[in-house]
């Protein structure tokens, strides 16, 4: 699946970087931020983009710009609230996407269990071996995890279903690209990759679906538990 490019405005990126800076430096209400000149160098952006980011943050009561004095953190509680809102939006987005995954990918698992070829079995076994190696080495397994799911979808032999899931790829890949800001959030799903695939390769449709739904239930519960 080709990854689609998402357009992010420069001032939005700068705004997020300023918020990250406040959080990382543990600044409190009334603390002074670096000057405009200093922040243009820190973030490598032009003054217009920085000023637009500052206007946005000032409108949200995160900062206060005082002419001739500087830029100050206005309300830490507002900043924390914004962080909670961001988490809540991300959680709701992923939960909505998970419902679609249950339907579309669930059908893919069902078809794969009926149609998977010996060649495809060997291909997925190789991916799972690499998955195990990366996991045991403490490496980021998000991309190998995504590859596993893509190969299961490919094993359906249904090009229309593959095309539908491909058009859904940007949202789908959010599960494998630091969901909720944590690459390891779904690490506990690893055993279900093994049990689901064991059922798929023996054409045990019912067993494959049971393991798939266990995986989806685990992801849902983990999303709901993030504060």
Short description:
With 227 residues, this protein is mainly alpha-helical. It is built from ten helices and two strands. The protein has two domains: 10-74, Winged helix-like DNA-binding domain superfamily/Winged helix DNA-binding domain (Arc Repressor Mutant, subunit A); 85-225, GntR ligand-binding domain-like (Four Helix Bundle (Hemerythrin (Met), subunit A)), CATH 1.20.120.530.
Question: How would you describe what is shown here?
Answer:
By secondary structure, the chain is mainly α. The protein has two domains: 10-74, Winged helix-like DNA-binding domain superfamily/Winged helix DNA-binding domain (Arc Repressor Mutant, subunit A), CATH 1.10.10; 85-225, Four Helix Bundle (Hemerythrin (Met), subunit A) (Up-down Bundle), CATH 1.20.120.530. Helix content is 68%, strand content 4%. It contains ten helices and two strands. A two-stranded antiparallel sheet has the order 1-2. A hairpin with a 3-residue loop joins strand 1 and strand 2 (70-73). Helix 5 (118-136) packs antiparallel against helix 9 (190-201) and helix 9 (190-201) packs antiparallel against helix 10 (205-225). It is elongated and about 75 Å long. Mean pLDDT is 87; it is low at 1-8.
